[in-house]
Design a protein that fits this description.
By secondary structure, the chain is α+β, with helices and mostly antiparallel strands. It folds into 2 domains: 2-72, no CATH class; 96-298, Calycin beta-barrel core domain (Lipocalin), CATH 2.40.128. Helices cover 28% and strands 24% of the residues. The chain is built from 7 helices and 13 strands. The protein has helices at residues 2-13, 26-42, 47-72, 80-84, 120-134, 153-156, 289-292, and strands at residues 16-17, 20-21, 96-100, 161-165, 169-174, 180-184, 203-209, 212-218, 226-227, 231-232, 238-246, 251-259, 267-276. A 9-stranded mixed β-barrel has the order 3-4-5-6-7-8-11-12-13. The chain is globular and about 80 Å long.
């Protein structure tokens, strides 16, 4: 270690080592400095120092693991500690019952027209659905066979929706099959793709931009999941909603920005409105095949 200390002094001062002059350029200085660092780090430590170093390293590892676990499995939205955290007051509160505005006509529950430029498979599905409608036939009417409506159709499928807004989340329950949707507001990120459980309504997280609630939704299942008349969604389907209150809080307006590079080009946008209905409650709804099998709208013929 004496030689190491002398070498450190020499590196710092450019002096002599046992009477021998050494000339240093920058590369040589850097190499010697690295070697000195390695020598010092490899120097044996006392048992007390080892114990302290191990404890510090273990604490660091535990903190990193806890942070990772919190990111993947955040505190529950209904956990008292989470609800009690200080947060800015929300610009509006959606608590209440809402029904989609169909004043422009019953077909306005659909998200087109206008439609984006579809990929070949999606275009074929759109054409088949349009042809079936002209012939008064059903096409991919899985909703009529008790499959969930899924996003975004859950929001506009005629039936009212009850919404309960808390500081950490917005819970939505539709009068159509009691479909449940949750929008988390507690600052969490999307569930990592390697552990997320895909669903019809997806993984939704929201944040405030001024007086607008911006909701990002992904991780939706694709099986029996259609938009409008049988237009498919893929595992890359992604949706942004920009929600704001208008008409003195009596009307909710949502602008939808939907992308799915496997099914259409660019963005598919649509804006919808909902009105408060204070004389309506959401009741229990059960969809069973035996109740639907005699409905003509659920069959091709």
């Amino acid at each position: 270690m004496a030689r190491t200390g002398e070498l450190c002094r020499l590196v710092a001062q450019g002096g002599e080592l046992e009477g021998e002059m050494i000339s240093f350029n920058r590369a040589t200085m850097a190499a010697i400095s690295l070697g000195v660092g390695l020598l010092l780090s490899a120097a044996p430590s006392t048992p007390g120092q080892q114990t302290a170093q191990q404890a510090a390293q273990q604490t660091t590892q535990q903190a990193a693991q806890q942070k990772e676990n919190t990111a993947e499995f955040p505190e529950g939205a209904l956990a008292p500690d989470n609800l009690a955290k200080p947060r800015p007051k929300a610009p509006f509160n959606l608590t209440g019952t809402w029904t989609v505005d169909l004043s422009a006509g019953f077909a306005s529950f659909m998200f087109g027209p206008p439609y984006p430029k579809f990929k070949p498979d999606a275009q074929a599905a759109y054409d088949a659905g349009k042809k079936a409608a002209a012939e008064h036939k059903a096409y991919r009417d899985d909703i009529g066979h008790c499959y969930p409506a899924g996003m975004p159709m859950l929001m506009t499928r005629v039936w009212p929706i009850a919404m309960i807004q808390l500081p950490t989340a917005i819970y939505m329950v539709s009068g159509f099959e009691n479909g449940l949707r949750i929008i988390y507001l507690d600052g969490r990120q999307h569930t990592p793709p390697d552990i997320v459980v895909r669903s019809y309504n997806g993984d939704s997280v929201g944040h405030w931009e001024g007086d607008t609630l911006v909701v990002d939704t992904n991780s939706m299942t694709t099986e029996h999941h259609w938009i409008d008349q049988g237009i498919p969604v893929s595992d890359e389907f992604h949706m942004i909603e920009r929600m704001r209150m208008v008409n003195d809080g009596k009307t909710l307006e949502i602008k939808y920005i939907m992308t799915d590079p496997k099914n259409w080009d660019g963005e598919w946008t649509s804006t919808k409105r909902w009105n408060r209905v204070d004389d309506t409650d959401i009741t229990e709804v059960e969809c069973t095949p035996d109740l639907n099998q005699h409905l003509l709208s659920t069959h091709d013929e």
